[in-house]
Design brief:
Blueprint: H1 11-23, H2 28-47, E1 52-56, H3 60-74, E2 79-83, H4 90-98, E3 103-105, E4 114-118, H5 130-142, E5 145-149, E6 171-175, H6 180-183, H7 187-191, E7 193-197, E8 207-209, E9 229-233, H8 238-249, E10 255-260, E11 272-275, H9 279-286, E12 293-296, H10 304-315, E13 320-322, H11 325-330, H12 334-339, E14 345-347, H13 351-357, H14 364-372, E15 377-380, E16 384-388, E17 394-398, H15 409-422, H16 428-445, H17 451-463
Parallel strand pairs: 1-2, 1-4, 2-3, 4-5, 5-6, 6-7, 8-17, 9-10, 9-12, 10-11, 12-13, 13-14, 14-15
Antiparallel strand pairs: 15-16, 16-17
Helix pairs in contact: 2-3, 2-4, 3-4, 8-15, 9-10, 15-16, 16-17
Bound molecules: ligand LZDS7PUF and potassium ion.
Family: In the C-terminal section; belongs to the NnrD/CARKD family. Belongs to the NnrE/AIBP family.
InterPro entries: Carbohydrate_kinase_pred_CS, CARKD, Nnr, Ribokinase-like, YjeF_N_dom, YjeF_N_dom_sf
Subunit structure: Homotetramer.
Amino acid sequence: MIPPGAPILTADAMRTAEEAVFARGVSQDELMERAGAAVAREAVRFAMGRSVLVLAGPGNNGGDAYVVARHLREAGLDVLVAASGAPKQGAAERMHARWKGPTTSLYGAPVRPVVIDGLFGIGVTRSLERSIAAVLSELVRGAEFTLAIDLPSGMDTDSGDELGAPRGVNATVALGALKPAHVLGDGLSRCGHVLLADIGIPVESAWRSVARPQMETPGPRTHKYSRGLVAVVEGAMPGAGRLAARAAMASGAGYVMLAGPDPAGPAPDALVRRTIDDADDLADFLAGDRIDAVVLGPGLGRDRRAEAFLRAGLAVDKPLVLDGDALSLLGTSAAATLAAREAPVWITPHGGEFDRMFAGTGSKIDRTLQAAASGATVVHKGGDTVIAGPDGRVRVLAGASPWLSTAGTGDVLAGLLGAQIGQGGSGVDPAAAAVWLHGRAAQLAGPAFFADQLVAQLPEACSECL
Ligand SMILES: NC(=O)C1=CN([C@@H]2O[C@H](COP(=O)(O)OP(=O)(O)OC[C@H]3O[C@@H](n4cnc5c(N)ncnc54)[C@H](OP(=O)(O)O)[C@@H]3O)[C@@H](O)[C@H]2O)[C@H](O)CC1
Ligand SMILES: [K+]
Protein backbone atom coordinates (compact mmCIF):
# COMPACT_ATOMS: atom_id res chain seq x y z
CA MET A 1 0.00 0.00 0.00
CA ILE A 2 1.25 3.43 -0.96
CA PRO A 3 -0.56 6.73 -0.30
CA PRO A 4 -2.19 7.77 -3.62
CA GLY A 5 -1.55 11.16 -5.18
CA ALA A 6 1.25 11.90 -2.72
CA PRO A 7 4.25 14.10 -3.54
CA ILE A 8 7.59 12.39 -4.15
CA LEU A 9 10.78 14.27 -3.26
CA THR A 10 14.46 13.42 -3.64
CA ALA A 11 16.69 13.75 -0.59
CA ASP A 12 17.96 17.13 -1.79
CA ALA A 13 14.47 18.43 -2.54
CA MET A 14 13.33 17.30 0.93
CA ARG A 15 16.22 19.16 2.54
CA THR A 16 15.38 22.29 0.53
CA ALA A 17 11.75 22.08 1.67
CA GLU A 18 12.97 21.61 5.25
CA GLU A 19 15.26 24.66 4.98
CA ALA A 20 12.29 26.79 3.88
CA VAL A 21 10.51 25.83 7.11
CA PHE A 22 13.57 26.73 9.19
CA ALA A 23 13.72 30.08 7.38
CA ARG A 24 10.17 30.78 8.58
CA GLY A 25 11.35 30.44 12.17
CA VAL A 26 10.52 26.82 12.95
CA SER A 27 13.43 25.25 14.84
CA GLN A 28 15.05 21.93 13.96
CA ASP A 29 14.01 20.66 17.39
CA GLU A 30 10.39 21.53 16.66
CA LEU A 31 10.45 19.67 13.35
CA MET A 32 12.07 16.65 14.95
CA GLU A 33 9.48 16.71 17.73
CA ARG A 34 6.72 16.70 15.10
CA ALA A 35 8.37 13.86 13.18
CA GLY A 36 8.88 11.75 16.30
CA ALA A 37 5.34 12.40 17.53
CA ALA A 38 3.88 11.42 14.14
CA VAL A 39 5.79 8.14 14.10
CA ALA A 40 4.94 7.46 17.75
CA ARG A 41 1.20 7.84 17.02
CA GLU A 42 1.42 4.98 14.53
CA ALA A 43 3.84 2.94 16.64
CA VAL A 44 1.65 2.98 19.74
CA ARG A 45 -1.32 1.67 17.73
CA PHE A 46 0.67 -1.17 16.28
CA ALA A 47 2.59 -2.04 19.47
CA MET A 48 -0.61 -2.88 21.40
CA GLY A 49 1.22 -3.06 24.72
CA ARG A 50 4.15 -5.17 23.55
CA SER A 51 7.70 -4.25 24.54
CA VAL A 52 9.57 -2.07 22.08
CA LEU A 53 13.15 -1.84 20.88
CA VAL A 54 13.96 1.54 19.30
CA LEU A 55 17.07 1.52 17.09
CA ALA A 56 18.76 4.93 17.03
CA GLY A 57 21.48 5.95 14.56
CA PRO A 58 23.95 8.86 14.67
CA GLY A 59 22.02 11.39 12.52
CA ASN A 60 18.61 13.03 12.52
CA ASN A 61 16.83 9.74 11.82
CA GLY A 62 18.29 8.67 15.17
CA GLY A 63 17.11 11.99 16.65
CA ASP A 64 13.57 11.15 15.54
CA ALA A 65 14.02 7.74 17.15
CA TYR A 66 14.76 9.25 20.60
CA VAL A 67 11.57 11.31 20.33
CA VAL A 68 9.57 8.19 19.41
CA ALA A 69 11.11 6.32 22.35
CA ARG A 70 10.12 9.12 24.76
CA HIS A 71 6.50 9.21 23.53
CA LEU A 72 6.14 5.44 23.70
CA ARG A 73 7.53 5.37 27.23
CA GLU A 74 5.12 8.15 28.22
CA ALA A 75 2.35 5.99 26.76
CA GLY A 76 3.28 3.33 29.28
CA LEU A 77 5.20 0.92 27.03
CA ASP A 78 8.38 -0.89 28.02
CA VAL A 79 10.95 0.79 25.74
CA LEU A 80 14.64 0.06 25.27
CA VAL A 81 16.82 2.16 22.95
CA ALA A 82 19.60 0.39 21.05
CA ALA A 83 22.08 3.02 19.78
CA SER A 84 24.64 2.48 17.04
CA GLY A 85 26.75 5.29 18.51
CA ALA A 86 26.44 8.71 20.08
CA PRO A 87 24.27 11.16 18.16
CA LYS A 88 26.50 13.55 16.25
CA GLN A 89 25.21 17.00 17.14
CA GLY A 90 22.38 19.51 17.07
CA ALA A 91 18.77 18.46 17.49
CA ALA A 92 19.61 14.74 17.55
CA GLU A 93 21.96 15.28 20.47
CA ARG A 94 19.32 17.30 22.32
CA MET A 95 16.66 14.60 21.76
CA HIS A 96 19.14 12.02 23.04
CA ALA A 97 19.60 14.15 26.18
CA ARG A 98 15.81 14.19 26.73
CA TRP A 99 15.63 10.40 26.66
CA LYS A 100 15.54 9.20 30.27
CA GLY A 101 14.92 5.50 29.69
CA PRO A 102 17.35 2.59 29.30
CA THR A 103 19.85 2.48 26.43
CA THR A 104 22.03 -0.35 25.18
CA SER A 105 24.47 -0.84 22.33
CA LEU A 106 23.00 -1.91 19.02
CA TYR A 107 25.34 -4.89 18.95
CA GLY A 108 24.15 -6.31 22.26
CA ALA A 109 20.47 -5.52 21.76
CA PRO A 110 17.95 -8.22 22.64
CA VAL A 111 15.21 -9.31 20.27
CA ARG A 112 11.89 -7.61 21.16
CA PRO A 113 8.44 -8.06 19.61
CA VAL A 114 8.24 -4.49 18.30
CA VAL A 115 11.16 -2.76 16.56
CA ILE A 116 11.28 0.90 15.53
CA ASP A 117 14.02 1.38 12.94
CA GLY A 118 15.60 4.81 13.34
CA LEU A 119 19.17 3.97 12.34
CA PHE A 120 19.36 5.83 9.02
CA GLY A 121 16.92 7.72 6.82
CA ILE A 122 17.57 9.92 3.83
CA GLY A 123 21.17 10.58 4.90
CA VAL A 124 22.58 7.20 3.90
CA THR A 125 25.44 7.81 1.52
CA ARG A 126 26.96 4.33 1.14
CA SER A 127 26.27 0.68 1.89
CA LEU A 128 25.84 -0.17 5.56
CA GLU A 129 28.73 -2.00 7.18
CA ARG A 130 28.06 -5.70 7.14
CA SER A 131 28.00 -5.89 10.93
CA ILE A 132 25.25 -3.21 11.18
CA ALA A 133 23.21 -4.74 8.35
CA ALA A 134 23.45 -8.17 9.98
CA VAL A 135 22.32 -6.98 13.45
CA LEU A 136 19.49 -4.95 11.91
CA SER A 137 18.31 -7.87 9.86
CA GLU A 138 18.43 -10.22 12.87
CA LEU A 139 16.45 -7.83 15.09
CA VAL A 140 13.82 -7.31 12.38
CA ARG A 141 13.57 -11.04 11.74
CA GLY A 142 13.11 -11.69 15.47
CA ALA A 143 10.38 -9.06 15.84
CA GLU A 144 6.65 -9.51 15.34
CA PHE A 145 6.28 -5.98 13.99
CA THR A 146 8.80 -3.48 12.61
CA LEU A 147 8.08 0.15 11.84
CA ALA A 148 10.70 2.18 9.95
CA ILE A 149 11.16 5.90 10.46
CA ASP A 150 11.09 7.64 7.07
CA LEU A 151 12.81 4.72 5.27
CA PRO A 152 14.03 1.27 6.23
CA SER A 153 17.70 1.85 7.10
CA GLY A 154 20.05 1.16 4.21
CA MET A 155 18.20 2.33 1.09
CA ASP A 156 19.39 4.84 -1.46
CA THR A 157 16.74 7.56 -1.18
CA ASP A 158 16.78 8.69 -4.79
CA SER A 159 17.17 5.41 -6.67
CA GLY A 160 15.66 2.86 -4.30
CA ASP A 161 18.84 0.80 -4.51
CA GLU A 162 19.29 -1.45 -1.54
CA LEU A 163 22.33 -0.53 0.59
CA GLY A 164 21.88 -3.10 3.34
CA ALA A 165 18.21 -2.56 4.23
CA PRO A 166 16.53 -5.50 5.96
CA ARG A 167 13.64 -7.54 4.64
CA GLY A 168 10.54 -7.87 6.74
CA VAL A 169 9.74 -4.27 7.72
CA ASN A 170 5.95 -4.14 8.12
CA ALA A 171 5.33 -0.42 7.81
CA THR A 172 7.22 2.78 7.12
CA VAL A 173 6.21 6.29 8.11
CA ALA A 174 7.43 8.60 5.33
CA LEU A 175 8.09 12.05 6.79
CA GLY A 176 6.76 15.07 4.90
CA ALA A 177 6.67 13.39 1.47
CA LEU A 178 7.31 10.10 -0.28
CA LYS A 179 10.85 9.57 -1.51
CA PRO A 180 11.72 7.69 -4.74
CA ALA A 181 12.95 4.78 -2.60
CA HIS A 182 9.39 4.16 -1.38
CA VAL A 183 8.14 3.54 -4.92
CA LEU A 184 11.05 2.43 -7.14
CA GLY A 185 12.41 -1.07 -7.68
CA ASP A 186 11.54 -3.38 -4.82
CA GLY A 187 11.50 -0.39 -2.43
CA LEU A 188 7.83 -0.77 -1.61
CA SER A 189 8.24 -4.41 -0.64
CA ARG A 190 11.11 -3.42 1.69
CA CYS A 191 8.99 -0.65 3.25
CA GLY A 192 5.84 -2.71 3.87
CA HIS A 193 2.82 -0.42 4.14
CA VAL A 194 3.86 3.17 3.55
CA LEU A 195 2.13 5.78 5.70
CA LEU A 196 2.69 9.46 5.06
CA ALA A 197 3.06 11.89 7.97
CA ASP A 198 2.38 15.59 7.45
CA ILE A 199 4.90 17.32 9.73
CA GLY A 200 4.08 20.82 8.53
CA ILE A 201 6.60 21.08 5.71
CA PRO A 202 4.93 22.68 2.67
CA VAL A 203 5.81 20.47 -0.25
CA GLU A 204 5.66 21.35 -3.93
CA SER A 205 6.47 18.55 -6.31
CA ALA A 206 5.83 17.73 -9.95
CA TRP A 207 6.33 14.08 -8.98
CA ARG A 208 3.45 12.16 -7.44
CA SER A 209 2.23 8.65 -6.82
CA VAL A 210 -0.60 7.58 -9.14
CA ALA A 211 -4.06 8.26 -7.74
CA ARG A 212 -7.43 6.80 -8.72
CA PRO A 213 -8.67 8.83 -11.71
CA GLN A 214 -12.03 10.56 -11.88
CA MET A 215 -14.11 9.38 -14.86
CA GLU A 216 -17.28 11.00 -16.15
CA THR A 217 -20.59 9.25 -16.58
CA PRO A 218 -21.88 9.98 -20.13
CA GLY A 219 -24.54 12.70 -20.11
CA PRO A 220 -27.76 13.02 -22.14
CA ARG A 221 -25.94 14.76 -25.00
CA THR A 222 -23.03 12.34 -25.13
CA HIS A 223 -22.74 10.23 -28.28
CA LYS A 224 -20.31 7.63 -29.53
CA TYR A 225 -18.05 10.15 -31.26
CA SER A 226 -17.89 12.53 -28.31
CA ARG A 227 -16.62 9.63 -26.20
CA GLY A 228 -13.69 9.23 -28.59
CA LEU A 229 -13.03 7.18 -31.68
CA VAL A 230 -9.92 5.06 -31.20
CA ALA A 231 -8.23 3.44 -34.19
CA VAL A 232 -6.08 0.43 -33.38
CA VAL A 233 -3.67 -0.63 -36.10
CA GLU A 234 -3.18 -4.39 -36.32
CA GLY A 235 -0.39 -6.28 -38.02
CA ALA A 236 1.42 -9.59 -38.03
CA MET A 237 -0.07 -10.86 -34.75
CA PRO A 238 -3.74 -9.82 -34.95
CA GLY A 239 -4.57 -11.03 -31.44
CA ALA A 240 -2.47 -8.23 -29.93
CA GLY A 241 -4.36 -5.54 -31.82
CA ARG A 242 -7.66 -7.15 -30.86
CA LEU A 243 -6.69 -7.12 -27.18
CA ALA A 244 -5.79 -3.44 -27.39
CA ALA A 245 -9.07 -2.70 -29.20
CA ARG A 246 -11.12 -4.63 -26.66
CA ALA A 247 -9.37 -2.83 -23.78
CA ALA A 248 -10.28 0.52 -25.35
CA MET A 249 -13.89 -0.65 -25.75
CA ALA A 250 -14.08 -1.86 -22.15
CA SER A 251 -12.72 1.35 -20.67
CA GLY A 252 -15.07 3.94 -22.05
CA ALA A 253 -14.17 4.65 -25.69
CA GLY A 254 -17.26 5.48 -27.75
CA TYR A 255 -16.14 3.81 -30.94
CA VAL A 256 -13.20 1.53 -31.67
CA MET A 257 -11.93 0.53 -35.09
CA LEU A 258 -9.43 -2.20 -35.82
CA ALA A 259 -7.56 -1.41 -39.02
CA GLY A 260 -5.04 -3.63 -40.77
CA PRO A 261 -4.35 -6.19 -43.45
CA ASP A 262 -6.68 -8.79 -41.97
CA PRO A 263 -8.87 -7.29 -39.25
CA ALA A 264 -11.55 -9.95 -39.45
CA GLY A 265 -11.61 -12.37 -36.56
CA PRO A 266 -13.63 -13.42 -33.56
CA ALA A 267 -16.11 -11.21 -31.72
CA PRO A 268 -16.76 -8.64 -30.38
CA ASP A 269 -19.21 -7.60 -33.05
CA ALA A 270 -19.18 -4.05 -31.74
CA LEU A 271 -15.58 -3.76 -32.92
CA VAL A 272 -15.61 -2.11 -36.34
CA ARG A 273 -13.09 -3.56 -38.80
CA ARG A 274 -11.38 -1.79 -41.66
CA THR A 275 -9.13 -3.61 -44.14
CA ILE A 276 -5.98 -1.68 -44.94
CA ASP A 277 -4.10 -2.51 -48.14
CA ASP A 278 -0.87 -0.61 -47.67
CA ALA A 279 0.77 2.29 -45.84
CA ASP A 280 -0.83 4.91 -48.11
CA ASP A 281 -4.23 3.45 -47.40
CA LEU A 282 -3.41 3.52 -43.66
CA ALA A 283 -2.34 7.17 -43.87
CA ASP A 284 -5.61 8.10 -45.62
CA PHE A 285 -7.66 6.17 -43.09
CA LEU A 286 -5.91 7.65 -40.03
CA ALA A 287 -6.27 11.17 -41.40
CA GLY A 288 -10.08 10.79 -41.25
CA ASP A 289 -11.77 13.57 -39.26
CA ARG A 290 -13.57 11.29 -36.85
CA ILE A 291 -10.50 9.58 -35.42
CA ASP A 292 -9.44 10.97 -32.03
CA ALA A 293 -6.56 8.65 -31.12
CA VAL A 294 -4.39 6.03 -32.79
CA VAL A 295 -2.80 2.97 -31.16
CA LEU A 296 0.01 1.44 -33.16
CA GLY A 297 2.52 -1.26 -32.34
CA PRO A 298 0.87 -4.20 -30.55
CA GLY A 299 1.59 -7.25 -32.73
CA LEU A 300 2.60 -4.98 -35.60
CA GLY A 301 5.59 -7.07 -36.71
CA ARG A 302 8.99 -5.71 -37.67
CA ASP A 303 9.08 -6.23 -41.44
CA ARG A 304 9.00 -3.62 -44.20
CA ARG A 305 5.25 -3.30 -44.09
CA ALA A 306 5.42 -2.69 -40.31
CA GLU A 307 8.05 -0.01 -40.88
CA ALA A 308 5.86 1.67 -43.48
CA PHE A 309 2.84 1.50 -41.15
CA LEU A 310 4.92 3.11 -38.38
CA ARG A 311 5.95 5.93 -40.71
CA ALA A 312 2.31 6.45 -41.67
CA GLY A 313 1.29 6.56 -38.01
CA LEU A 314 4.04 9.00 -37.09
CA ALA A 315 3.04 11.30 -39.94
CA VAL A 316 -0.59 11.58 -38.80
CA ASP A 317 -1.55 14.70 -36.89
CA LYS A 318 -3.48 12.85 -34.15
CA PRO A 319 -2.71 11.76 -30.58
CA LEU A 320 -0.72 8.54 -30.97
CA VAL A 321 0.18 5.64 -28.66
CA LEU A 322 3.22 3.62 -29.69
CA ASP A 323 3.79 0.25 -28.09
CA GLY A 324 5.43 -3.15 -28.68
CA ASP A 325 6.94 -3.64 -32.14
CA ALA A 326 6.66 0.08 -32.93
CA LEU A 327 9.12 0.70 -30.09
CA SER A 328 11.51 -1.97 -31.36
CA LEU A 329 11.38 -0.40 -34.81
CA LEU A 330 12.14 3.04 -33.36
CA GLY A 331 15.20 1.57 -31.62
CA THR A 332 18.09 3.89 -30.88
CA SER A 333 16.66 6.62 -33.11
CA ALA A 334 13.57 6.89 -30.87
CA ALA A 335 14.49 10.23 -29.27
CA ALA A 336 15.18 11.93 -32.61
CA THR A 337 12.10 10.45 -34.33
CA LEU A 338 9.77 11.39 -31.49
CA ALA A 339 11.24 14.89 -31.24
CA ALA A 340 10.51 15.43 -34.93
CA ARG A 341 6.80 14.75 -34.43
CA GLU A 342 4.53 17.65 -33.52
CA ALA A 343 1.29 15.94 -32.49
CA PRO A 344 1.19 14.39 -29.01
CA VAL A 345 2.66 10.93 -28.62
CA TRP A 346 2.79 8.43 -25.77
CA ILE A 347 5.17 5.47 -25.66
CA THR A 348 4.74 2.49 -23.37
CA PRO A 349 8.06 0.59 -23.17
CA HIS A 350 8.87 -2.12 -20.65
CA GLY A 351 12.39 -2.05 -19.21
CA GLY A 352 14.01 -3.97 -22.07
CA GLU A 353 12.39 -1.84 -24.77
CA PHE A 354 13.28 1.33 -22.89
CA ASP A 355 16.96 0.34 -22.61
CA ARG A 356 17.10 -0.40 -26.34
CA MET A 357 15.73 3.06 -27.15
CA PHE A 358 17.35 5.36 -24.62
CA ALA A 359 20.69 5.61 -22.82
CA GLY A 360 20.28 7.83 -19.77
CA THR A 361 21.70 7.91 -16.28
CA GLY A 362 20.41 7.98 -12.73
CA SER A 363 17.28 6.53 -11.18
CA LYS A 364 14.35 5.13 -13.16
CA ILE A 365 12.61 8.49 -12.66
CA ASP A 366 15.66 10.38 -13.95
CA ARG A 367 16.02 8.14 -17.01
CA THR A 368 12.32 8.32 -17.84
CA LEU A 369 12.37 12.12 -17.60
CA GLN A 370 15.41 12.21 -19.90
CA ALA A 371 13.48 10.11 -22.44
CA ALA A 372 10.46 12.42 -22.14
CA ALA A 373 12.64 15.35 -23.16
CA SER A 374 12.05 13.95 -26.68
CA GLY A 375 8.55 15.40 -26.43
CA ALA A 376 6.84 12.04 -25.83
CA THR A 377 5.03 11.11 -22.66
CA VAL A 378 6.84 7.98 -21.53
CA VAL A 379 5.13 5.16 -19.65
CA HIS A 380 8.11 3.13 -18.42
CA LYS A 381 6.45 -0.09 -17.32
CA GLY A 382 7.48 -2.56 -14.65
CA GLY A 383 6.72 -3.59 -11.07
CA ASP A 384 7.19 0.15 -10.59
CA THR A 385 5.68 2.04 -13.52
CA VAL A 386 7.15 5.50 -14.01
CA ILE A 387 5.27 7.97 -16.22
CA ALA A 388 7.12 11.13 -17.26
CA GLY A 389 5.94 13.98 -19.45
CA PRO A 390 7.93 16.51 -21.44
CA ASP A 391 6.66 19.15 -18.98
CA GLY A 392 8.64 17.45 -16.18
CA ARG A 393 5.65 15.94 -14.43
CA VAL A 394 6.08 12.40 -13.10
CA ARG A 395 3.58 9.83 -11.84
CA VAL A 396 4.64 6.53 -10.28
CA LEU A 397 2.58 3.43 -9.59
CA ALA A 398 4.23 0.99 -7.21
CA GLY A 399 3.05 -2.39 -6.08
CA ALA A 400 1.13 -3.53 -9.18
CA SER A 401 0.19 -7.19 -9.29
CA PRO A 402 3.19 -9.36 -10.27
CA TRP A 403 0.65 -11.50 -12.18
CA LEU A 404 0.64 -8.77 -14.82
CA SER A 405 3.87 -10.32 -16.12
CA THR A 406 2.06 -12.30 -18.80
CA ALA A 407 1.71 -11.95 -22.59
CA GLY A 408 -0.86 -9.44 -23.80
CA THR A 409 -1.16 -7.26 -20.71
CA GLY A 410 0.95 -4.58 -22.43
CA ASP A 411 -1.46 -4.61 -25.40
CA VAL A 412 -4.30 -4.07 -22.93
CA LEU A 413 -2.51 -1.05 -21.46
CA ALA A 414 -1.92 0.43 -24.92
CA GLY A 415 -5.65 0.13 -25.73
CA LEU A 416 -6.61 1.61 -22.37
CA LEU A 417 -4.34 4.55 -23.02
CA GLY A 418 -5.87 4.99 -26.48
CA ALA A 419 -9.33 5.25 -24.89
CA GLN A 420 -8.10 7.77 -22.32
CA ILE A 421 -6.42 10.09 -24.83
CA GLY A 422 -9.33 9.65 -27.27
CA GLN A 423 -11.45 11.39 -24.62
CA GLY A 424 -9.03 14.32 -24.38
CA GLY A 425 -6.37 15.00 -21.83
CA SER A 426 -2.71 15.46 -22.38
CA GLY A 427 0.62 14.35 -20.97
CA VAL A 428 0.82 12.28 -17.82
CA ASP A 429 -2.85 12.50 -16.74
CA PRO A 430 -4.44 10.07 -19.23
CA ALA A 431 -1.40 7.81 -18.86
CA ALA A 432 -1.78 7.73 -15.07
CA ALA A 433 -5.50 6.97 -15.48
CA ALA A 434 -4.72 4.07 -17.84
CA VAL A 435 -2.04 2.70 -15.54
CA TRP A 436 -4.36 2.91 -12.52
CA LEU A 437 -7.20 1.11 -14.36
CA HIS A 438 -4.76 -1.55 -15.56
CA GLY A 439 -3.43 -2.13 -12.04
CA ARG A 440 -6.89 -2.19 -10.50
CA ALA A 441 -8.22 -4.64 -13.12
CA ALA A 442 -5.26 -6.90 -12.29
CA GLN A 443 -6.14 -6.79 -8.60
CA LEU A 444 -9.73 -7.65 -9.42
CA ALA A 445 -8.62 -10.51 -11.69
CA GLY A 446 -6.70 -12.12 -8.81
CA PRO A 447 -3.87 -14.57 -9.49
CA ALA A 448 -2.95 -16.43 -12.68
CA PHE A 449 -5.19 -14.47 -15.04
CA PHE A 450 -4.51 -13.99 -18.71
CA ALA A 451 -4.84 -10.78 -20.68
CA ASP A 452 -8.40 -11.43 -21.93
CA GLN A 453 -9.51 -11.78 -18.32
CA LEU A 454 -7.87 -8.46 -17.50
CA VAL A 455 -10.07 -6.82 -20.17
CA ALA A 456 -13.10 -8.41 -18.56
CA GLN A 457 -12.34 -6.61 -15.28
CA LEU A 458 -12.01 -3.16 -16.81
CA PRO A 459 -15.68 -2.09 -16.54
CA GLU A 460 -15.58 -2.92 -12.82
CA ALA A 461 -12.35 -0.93 -12.41
CA CYS A 462 -13.96 2.00 -14.28
CA SER A 463 -17.02 1.86 -12.04
CA GLU A 464 -14.78 2.66 -9.07
CA CYS A 465 -13.76 5.91 -10.77
CA LEU A 466 -17.26 7.37 -11.29
N1 LIG B 1 12.12 15.19 6.10
C1 LIG B 1 12.43 16.14 6.94
O1 LIG B 1 12.40 17.26 6.60
C2 LIG B 1 12.86 15.80 8.27
C3 LIG B 1 13.64 14.70 8.47
N2 LIG B 1 14.08 14.33 9.66
C4 LIG B 1 14.79 13.09 9.79
O2 LIG B 1 16.13 13.29 9.41
C5 LIG B 1 16.53 12.22 8.59
C6 LIG B 1 17.72 12.58 7.82
O3 LIG B 1 18.72 12.89 8.74
P1 LIG B 1 20.26 12.98 8.38
O4 LIG B 1 20.96 13.35 9.59
O5 LIG B 1 20.43 13.85 7.20
O6 LIG B 1 20.59 11.54 7.89
P2 LIG B 1 20.44 10.10 8.59
O7 LIG B 1 20.03 10.20 9.98
O8 LIG B 1 19.62 9.30 7.65
O9 LIG B 1 21.91 9.51 8.49
C7 LIG B 1 23.02 10.35 8.49
C8 LIG B 1 24.03 9.83 9.44
O10 LIG B 1 24.39 8.53 9.10
C9 LIG B 1 25.76 8.47 8.75
N3 LIG B 1 25.85 7.51 7.65
C10 LIG B 1 25.40 7.64 6.40
N4 LIG B 1 25.55 6.50 5.71
C11 LIG B 1 26.11 5.61 6.59
C12 LIG B 1 26.51 4.25 6.49
N5 LIG B 1 26.38 3.58 5.37
N6 LIG B 1 27.03 3.66 7.57
C13 LIG B 1 27.19 4.34 8.73
N7 LIG B 1 26.83 5.65 8.88
C14 LIG B 1 26.30 6.25 7.82
C15 LIG B 1 26.17 9.88 8.44
O11 LIG B 1 27.49 10.05 8.83
P3 LIG B 1 28.70 10.21 7.80
O12 LIG B 1 29.61 9.13 8.23
O13 LIG B 1 28.20 10.02 6.41
O14 LIG B 1 29.23 11.55 8.06
C16 LIG B 1 25.25 10.68 9.34
O15 LIG B 1 25.77 10.76 10.64
C17 LIG B 1 15.32 11.89 7.83
O16 LIG B 1 15.36 10.61 7.21
C18 LIG B 1 14.27 11.97 8.92
O17 LIG B 1 14.21 10.78 9.66
C19 LIG B 1 13.86 15.28 10.79
O18 LIG B 1 14.00 14.78 12.00
C20 LIG B 1 12.51 15.95 10.66
C21 LIG B 1 12.44 16.70 9.39
K1 LIG C 1 15.08 4.30 9.31
